[in-house]
Amino acid sequence: MTAPRILIADDHPLFRAAVLHALREALGQVDVVEAASASALGPALAAHPEIELVLLDLTMPGARGLSSLVYLRGERPDIPVVVISSNDHPRTIRRAQQFGAAGFIPKSSTAEVIGKAVSDVLEGGTWFPPMTAERSESDAQLAARLAQLTPQQFRVLLCLADGLLNKQIAHELGLAENTVKVHVTAILKKLDCHSRTQAAVLVKALEPEGEV
């Protein structure tokens, strides 16, 4: 039986090591790829297309709340994403679920719980702790709007939210400036926004109401 390949995306080396230990306790053999920032997710996925699951911290450098989750679901919708966060507020858990997470593991969880959650998701299921927060219709609508964007368009949108000009976005993403202009036009049309500022407000809505 081939060892599952799992991407652990968290900026704390000690926590990544702790998660790896928990995974080996639960699954035995496991092949782990690590990423320490939001910008490292794309290269990690490209270098290891056989990744079967992503364990994602929401507060890595370069992330805006749920932006890394939205990016991963757009880039590789075939790979389940399990959020692993120190904020296990019911609203945070529900939002992660609505934006496409297959599971949510509080960072305070035992190694046994982490292993059980990952095993359940690898087998095609989901794993969420009990929660009482109601489903948000505004989150559902935002998730549907953002799902229209290609992964590249979503990257451009994040740059828009940072207030970058087209020339700066082109430099940041390694694109021609004209290509950026085309993406911006498509983004505004898909999101039904009349300005870059309106689009930026949508990205702000991905940010947590509290710490994540």
Q: In words, what does this structure look like?
A:
The protein contains 10 helices and 5 strands; from the N terminus they run βαβαβαβαβαααααα. It has 212 residues and is of the alpha/beta class. The chain has 2 domains: 5-122, 3-Layer(aba) Sandwich (Rossmann fold), CATH 3.40.50; 137-204, Orthogonal Bundle (Arc Repressor Mutant, subunit A), CATH 1.10.10.10.
CATH topology of the largest domain: Rossmann fold
What summary fits the major beta sheet? Answer: 5 strands, parallel
CATH class category of the largest domain:
Alpha Beta
Number of domains: 2
Low-confidence stretches: none
Return the average pLDDT rounded to an integer: 91
Structural class by SSE content:
alpha/beta
Strand content: 5-15%
- Count of DSSP-assigned helices: 10
Assign the CATH superfamily of the largest domain: Response regulator
Main sheet strand line-up = 2-1-3-4-5
C-alpha Rg (nearest Å) = 17 Å
Keywords:
single chain; 212 residues; alpha/beta; Rossmann fold; Arc Repressor Mutant, subunit A; 2 domains; five-stranded parallel beta sheet; 49% helix; 11% strand
Tell me briefly what this model is:
With 212 residues, the chain is an alpha/beta fold.
Task: Provide the fold topology.
Layout: E1 5-9, H1 13-27, E2 31-35, H2 41-47, E3 53-56, H3 67-75, E4 81-85, H4 90-98, E5 103-106, H5 111-122, H6 137-146, H7 151-161, H8 166-173, H9 177-190, H10 196-204
